[in-house]
Amino acid sequence: PAPRFRSVTARVCRRDLSAWWQTVTLREGNSKGLTDGMGMIFAGGVAGRISEVGSRWATVRLVTSPHFRIAAHFEGDERPVTFQGGGIPPGGNPFGVVRNVPHDLSPTPQNPLSLLTSPLGETFPEGIVIGVVSQLEGGEDGLFKSGRVELDERLGRLREVTALLPLEDLSNSQ
Predict the structure, then answer these.
(1) What are the φ/ψ torsions at residue 126 (nearest 5 degrees)?
(2) How far apart are CA 60 and CA 21, in angstroms?
(3) Max Cα distance, the chain (Å)
């Protein structure tokens, strides 16, 4: 199918020490077509979503932030689940939480499941890696499972990300 997004690469110029795992600032802004809510990716998959933008800068809420949520699905299973950022513990790896997982899915450390972006959210194209799930537990409601999502460790040292500009918005940025 025809691509629905055009990419714009941007350098990370600042990382807030008080919120290391929550936001980064980029050297590009709305002069390059960036807008609030736009998806950001990096070599390891989903990086986050733009939360604020100026003419030559943009703030990205990282996928590790507890304020970041997205519709997702597991590789090979099209049923939607919910992903939410969890943070980066001191000296640890970035993680998130997946909820609303059907009971018939049972990943193991030997056979983990990849969590991917869903076509239900229009921020990202379908199939971009979010992270990996090795174990699920019964949810609070008894209907669904939930579990920890291990994210790419490179999120803790991002230097460059790529913005995904929806093609519908290209006429406004040129």
Answers:
(1) -65, 140
(2) 11
(3) 51
